[in-house]
């Protein structure tokens, strides 16, 4: 392997893992690391210069590759731009910067004839980029879908296994260090949306603007829904997806019912799982740790090593460019999205309700696959409906019409059902 | 992508898929295909020369890349050798030729400065080679383990779900076209052993001689064991593995109990699943179709495209050689293999039997984790034992000693228990 001199921004969990792994790779010389706070106590002190001035790393002319693992939009964006401008290659784990500024960054990289590698920005240690770009080279990618956030997967697994409410499971995740004090980015699906934008770039060439991604978090998932889903043979997972449909590319983040016999259903706790569907290969599922010190560092250092091997190729630039485009990916409107749905309605328990519900769905072209009454209690009953595949907009219209009915106590939940291709 | 002229040996299931996929790739020109029987009716006739003289393909000087999808050891071996000698690159799906002759072939390829690509030889469409060689570049591979044969996985799934005997499930698999008329290579584990040899080459640099691989098939797996395993929280799968142990590399094929909460347990029917464990990334599981026309062709054509891109690199040879060695991988002796075990004994039901069994295990340094009596019947009882991790040789000794006991009707089954690394 060619020798390469690298610098790094950030020495948190991932950065520490990178130092640990690079200690074993004599051909990669880590020259400088920039940190926010020089006085912070550290479990591992790198054997190189440490500075609190990020510019010292970005402006060092000897550094060929910049590793950015500081996270957050600013000042990471400005530092990456500066590195690219001075013709350094960049290896980044920063999903937010890529999702919000990917096209500009890749345009700049192309102008400067340098590369941006970003395996660690999606699904931590799971090698997704090598899989799509090399392993599935013969395929047109139909969809990339999966469980891309360990925090929400831990919460949903815990709610299902312990019968806890969302708030109870969130508190537990925070106590165990699986959720941040402010969990918004995870539980509202922003983190997954950034990753969906990157998946779109990998599968279809262009990033999707995060604001263009249909996004629903898990805060409204009720323990009752986990129980009903289980009875019907499903488990609820927060699914992010970039998917080619008849109308164009769809980009979505939402809790879905996943069939128990699909490999994604057994992705529990803080693991990640991704299903890549190619026109030739069919469904390929990858399951592994989506975060953590060494798994994420494994992706960062893998990028550095692959980059170092590639740097010695004469026509390096032409070999690596052209995979990622410099425009935003347009997406189909969310209400055109077609899926079977799971719907729970809370109703007053009197005769004729099921008939009325059926009529309202019918009037909106929603075909029902099954409709079952559950848990009659003082307050009424839960009606659980599974639909045939239908446009999301039609379901919304039916729900709107439902709200004006006397019998309705409330629309409980409305969740898409995940469809596997290979049999499940 | 660079233009490349290819020839192909074989036009069976996989070959037909290759023709189909190459039709979409204008940059790859399929010039000649050799078949065994020119008169055979075909669903897809390639738009190129078809011959029943394989030499016409191998000797065509314009052909740069030879695709070998004819299968079997001879004459595939001789034709591959001839192609390498005339400096053609080879893309092959032939696990048997690689496992039996890998070192010689890679030595010849290195001398001639050409490459052998073989993604399709293991686990069909699952892109394992790009994952290990590129995606997990920063990792030392601790083990590669998995379900590598769809026929036996179908049979075991069917036995478990339908409560059938091995023979009933085999007959069904044959009827459905999932098993050959002579199923020996699949059910006795030869097919998996070839793949284990290749996994060893990928993970540790050298092929293992198929005869050096510890191998047991599934013909002795009893429906009762599937049921007991389920009660203890396991499912029985035929597992092939290449694994680094304290003593060296272990290479094994055998039915194992896989914990139900491990992603491999949900790999059902004719699917394949592989767990790669790296020192940094932890466990990564890949699940997908291990056979079939388009999935396997996806791997073959992916190799052709990646090869074509790489061919335009100036230092192509140095970029691709050195990954696979030219010596045989030595392996540790099978009786030093350490694993927890599941053991079923058929015994006469009288007092003191469990105590006596415990003593025999103890005398052979086998620690018992649990011992349970099941299904008392006229003929006696089944005793099911789960052990702590122990050397296989000690278990063999205990079983040998058990055979001289009056109470023993027979040693039912003795199966290793699969241990996951990430929690399960």
List strands and helices in order, with pairings.
The structure is a homodimer of 424-residue chains.
Chain A: E1 4-9, H1 13-22, E2 28-34, E3 49-51, H2 54-58, E4 65-68, H3 76-85, E5 89-92, H4 95-112, E6 116-117, H5 128-135, E7 141-147, H6 150-162, H7 166-175, H8 184-187, H9 190-204, E8 214-215, H10 223-231, E9 234-245, E10 248-259, E11 271-278, E12 282-289, H11 293-311, H12 316-320, E13 338-339, E14 341-347, H13 353-363, E15 368-377, E16 380-387, E17 390-391, H14 392-402, E18 408-417
Give structural notes:
The structure is a homodimer of 424-residue chains. With 424 residues, chain A is α/β, with parallel strands linked by helices. Chain A has three domains: 4-125 and 293-320, Rossmann fold, CATH 3.40.50; 135-288, Dihydrodipicolinate Reductase, domain 2; 334-416, 2-Layer Sandwich (Alpha-Beta Plaits), CATH 3.30.70.260. Helices cover 35% and strands 27% of the residues of chain A. Chain A has 14 helices and 18 strands. The first copy, chain A, has helices at 13-22, 54-58, 76-85, 95-112, 128-135, 150-162, 166-175, 184-187, 190-204, 223-231, 293-311, 316-320, 353-363, 392-402, and strands at 4-9, 28-34, 49-51, 65-68, 89-92, 116-117, 141-147, 214-215, 234-245, 248-259, 271-278, 282-289, 338-339, 341-347, 368-377, 380-387, 390-391, 408-417. In chain A, the strands form three sheets. In chain A, strands 7, 8, 9, 10, 11, 12, 14, 15, 16 and 18 form a ten-stranded mixed sheet that branches. A six-stranded parallel sheet of chain A has the order 3-2-1-4-5-6, with helices on both faces. Chain A has a two-stranded antiparallel ribbon with strand order 13-17. Strand 12 of chain A pairs antiparallel with strand 12 of chain B, so a sheet runs across the interface.
């Amino acid at each position: 392997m060619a020798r390469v001199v690298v610098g790094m921004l950030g020495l948190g969990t991932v950065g520490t893992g990178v130092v640990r792994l690079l200690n074993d790779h004599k051909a990669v010389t880590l020259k400088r690391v920039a940190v926010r706070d020089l006085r912070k106590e550290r479990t591992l002190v790198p054997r190189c210069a440490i500075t609190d001035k990020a510019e010292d790393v970005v402006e060092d002319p000897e550094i060929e590759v910049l590793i950015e693992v500081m996270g957050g939009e600013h000042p990471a964006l400005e530092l990456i731009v500066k590195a690219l401008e001075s013709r350094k290659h960049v290896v980044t784990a920063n999903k937010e910067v890529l999702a919000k500024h990917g096209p500009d960054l890749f345009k700049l990289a192309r102008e400067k004839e340098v590369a941006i590698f970003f395996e660690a920005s999606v699904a931590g240690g799971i090698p997704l980029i090598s899989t799509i770009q090399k392993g599935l080279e013969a395929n047109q990618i139909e969809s990339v879908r999966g469980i891309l956030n360990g925090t929400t997967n831990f919460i949903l697994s815990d709610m299902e296994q312990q019968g806890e409410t969302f708030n109870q499971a969130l508190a537990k995740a925070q106590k165990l260090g699986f959720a941040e004090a402010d969990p918004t980015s995870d539980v509202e699906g922003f983190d997954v949306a950034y990753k969906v934008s990157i998946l779109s770039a990998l599968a279809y060439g262009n990033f999707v603007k995060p604001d263009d991604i249909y996004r629903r978090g898990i805060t409204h998932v009720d323990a009752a829904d986990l129980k009903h889903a289980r009875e019907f043979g499903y488990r609820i997972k927060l699914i992010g997806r970039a998917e080619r449909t008849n109308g164009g590319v769809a980009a979505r983040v939402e809790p879905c019912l996943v069939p128990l016999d699909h490999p994604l259903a057994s992705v529990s706790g803080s693991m990640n799982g991704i299903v890549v569907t190619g026109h030739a290969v069919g469904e390929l599922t990858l399951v592994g740790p989506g975060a953590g010190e060494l798994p994420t560092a494994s992706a960062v250092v893998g990028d550095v090593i692959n980059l170092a091997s590639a740097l010695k190729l004469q026509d390096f630039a032409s070999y690596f460019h052209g995979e990622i485009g410099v425009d935003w990916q347009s997406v189909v409107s969310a209400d055109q999205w077609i899926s079977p749905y799971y719907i729970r309605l809370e109703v007053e328990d009197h005769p004729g309700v099921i008939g009325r519900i059926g009529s309202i769905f019918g009037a909106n072209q929603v075909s029902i696959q099954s409709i079952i009454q559950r848990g009659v209690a003082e307050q009424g009953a839960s009606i659980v409906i599974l639909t045939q595949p239908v446009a999301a907009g039609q379901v919304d219209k039916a729900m709107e019409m439902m709200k004006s009915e006397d019998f309705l106590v409330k629309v409980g939940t409305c969740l898409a059902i995940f469809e596997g291709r290979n049999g499940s």
